[in-house]
Every structure is written in structure tokens, then in C-alpha cells.
Amino acid sequence: MTETESIAYDVVVLGAGPVGENVADRTRAAGLSTAVVESELVGGECSYWACIPSKALLRPVITRADARRVPGVAHLVQGPLDARAVLAHRNYEVGDWKDDGQVSWLDGIGADLYRGHGRLDGPRRVTVTGPDGERHVLTARHAVAVCTGSDAQLPDLPGIAEVNPWTSREATSAQSVPGRLVVVGGGVVASEMATTWQALGSQVTVLVRGKGLLPRMEPFAGELVAEALTEAGADVRTGTSVESVRREGQTVVVVTDAGDRLEADEILFATGRTPRTGDIGLDTVGLEPGSWLPVDDTLRVAGSEWLYAVGDVNHRALMTHQGKYQARIAGAAIAARAAHVPLLETDRWGAHSATADHAAVPQVVFTDPEAATVGLSLAEAEQAGRRVRAVDVELSSVAGANLFADGYRGRARMVVDLDSETLLGVTFVGPGVGELIHSASIAVAGEVPIDRLWHAVPSFPTISEVWLRLLETYRG
């Protein structure tokens, strides 16, 4: 093994996914020298095995579903999807799993890329073991940012190793359509992948341990998504756990807690995430390997002056857009501290404070129908002891929704803090509602009073007129 002499940077970033890229972008923009370490593809999970490929797969699914609800067009889209074309386009969108474009972007901002496995080796020190065994030692004058993300978590089940199960990676990168697919889980990945593969021709069975899909959203969100999956031909079973799995030849055999035996060609476990921190040297700085890394609102690890944890690894909000938001905050905080700014803006909504992680986290689930939410659900607000009122509106009452799709089904809810008369949370479920959520995010993050929202006039006839229906219902 060869080793170079230590190379000093202002900032060393572990992980070149969207989060690490954004930390590097912000620190380079502030004039700080920055090294980025990546063991796989530059662009990370989101670009190759999560957000981008899953949405590339789902776009034709949703487009066909929407077109089938429009008179004069519906008869043109009654046949099956061209699965080969869909998969080929997905391959194109992920660059056939090559990262040349992302590497060029890093070069363009002036960050130095080190390919290989990066590990902390004491305070402000990172060692990188390259693919050919070469070893680089990097030191950080100001900060090391851990942006290594998370991995799919597999349950400890009898027989799971022998079935070679799918995780989110295999589900978004598969090159052929399985005839039968069992999906275990009820969250975002399970719901989106069940939607995808059912539409591409799989016979999908969804096994949900809890009461329904999308348990972190308002109950009606999961109910409407489950109804649509069932209508599409999927078998959605709630209150069902997997007892064991095994492979008999090419067939995966699944036994449930009810004693049912299911057969499939593939099985996808979408049952949670675990931090990718098991082998990055946390023990050399007094932290537990494999643990989530708690941080303050500047994304600095508790008890450290130089170590930051940004994105999934801090377990605040496991979504790419939220990780990129955190990266912008962390980059600004690192730059400010490097410049010896005496007082950072860490108050509520300050430039160096990731306040939105607490109050205004948005999420869109690209199922049919789409489900979009920001802020607190009614149950979460009540559990927090807030005095609230939920206002519900059926989206079929909105002219724009009925023009969007014949027989439109959907629902909206806003959760109002009765003491401040501002919004704590908003949820939309229905075709096309993903594009509504940013308006809700502004209302929640900006703590816009209800009486001021009344003067934000939605254009007619758009689905956004649901805001008027919600406010009218609230005012009575």
C-alpha cells in the first residue's frame, strides 16, 4: 500500500451525494479549499438508486393514469406501458450509472475529488484508501462534514440471506419486470415501487405490518393510495407481518404471521434505513460506529467544534431536498466560523440555523394519486399539545381539479394553530398535487396568518383554488 504525505484543506467532505456536493459548493463559494471523498459514484444514492431513477420510472405511470381520466384522450392510452422503453429511459436519466457529468461539476467548482473509502483517523484527519490500494491522508483546518447517507435496513428474518432480496437499490435499477413481486413495507419506497412495478406488468402484493400505507402522513393519504393500488390490481394486505422467506428454485416463498404462503419472483423489503457510518472511523473521535449523529441547528455534531453531520446521517429528515437545505446551512456556518464571525445567526430562521427541519419539512410521494405534505399532521400537532383545528376539503369541489381529471378524487387538509391562526401543516392527496406543496411550505415556514392568506388569490381554474375552499371552510 502506498501513502502520500498529508494534504491540508480547509474542509473535507465525506460523501459526494447531493448533500456532500452542496456542502462543497457552499464552502468553495466562500473561498475555502475543499476535498470531497467518495467510494462509489459521484452524485450518490439520489442520482443513481433513489430519487432520479424512481421518478423516471414513475413519470410514465402517472402520465398514463392522468391521461386515462381525460375524455378524448383516454382511448389512446388503454394499452400496457412499454416497459422496455421505460427502463431504457430510466437508464438514460441515471447516465447508465456513470458519473462523468457529476465529476465535471465538482471540477467546475474547484473541489478536489478523492475516490476511495474515507475514514476519520482522529480529530480533523481523514484517510482515504483508493481502489488500487493507494492511501491519502487529508487534514481539515476548519471542518470535516460527514455526508455518507443511509442504507436500506433488512429485517432479521429466517431465510432472508438465501432469497437475495431487493432493497430500494434493486427496485430502482432492475433491468426486467418480475412476473410477481412481494413488497414488504408501507412507507414511501414501498408505495412508490408498488405503484411502479404494478403498472409495468408485475403482479404486486404489498404486506404492511401497520394499519395502512404512508403512516407518517394523514390517514386519508395512505387510504387513497391503497385504494388506487387495489383498483390497479395489486393485493394490499395491512396488519400483516412476514414470518419467514425462502427460495425454492427460482421462486421466493413468503410465509406471513397469518400462516399464508405467497410465491413471488422477487421480494422487496422497504422497512427502514440505517446510517452509513459503520466504517468511517467514528471510534477514533469518541463516537459509536454505525450510529446516527445528533447535531445542533448548524449541523455540527454535539460536543465537537469541527465535525459536521449533514443529511440522512443525522436522522433529522431523510429526504434529499432537506439534506441539500441542511448542506446550505452547514456550508454557511462552516464559512462563517472559518472567517471568525463573532456571532452566527442561529436564532429562529437565521442564516446559520436549520429551523425548517423542525417546522416545515415538505415531502411528495409520487404515487397515483400523489400525496404531498408539509409540517405537522393533525395527530402530531395534538401530541405536541397545540390547540388546533383541522380543515378538510374534497378536491372534487375545485373546478380546476375536475378539469384536470374526469371523476377527480382527492382531499386536502390544513392544520391551523388556533392561538396564532397560522398553519402548522398541510396535506394534499390527488392527481397533480405535488406542484401545490411549495405554496404550503411557504405558508407554514413563513407562519403566514390566515387573514393574510385570504388575500393570496389563487388563479381560476387551477387546482390551487383548493386554498380558497380551505380558507372559506375555516372561516365558515
From TrEMBL:
Residues 361-467 form the Pyridine nucleotide-disulphide oxidoreductase dimerisation domain. InterPro entries: Class-I_Pyr_Nuc-Dis_Oxidored, FAD/NAD-bd_sf, FAD/NAD-binding_dom, FAD/NAD-linked_Rdtase_dimer_sf, Pyr_nuc-diS_OxRdtase, Pyr_nucl-diS_OxRdtase_dimer. Transmembrane segments: none annotated. Its cofactor is FAD. Keywords: FAD, Flavoprotein, NAD. Residues 9-322 form the FAD/NAD(P)-binding domain. Belongs to the class-I pyridine nucleotide-disulfide oxidoreductase family. PANTHER family: DIHYDROLIPOYL DEHYDROGENASE, MITOCHONDRIAL (PTHR22912:SF151), DISULFIDE OXIDOREDUCTASE (PTHR22912). This is NAD(P)/FAD-dependent oxidoreductase. It comes from Streptomyces cynarae.
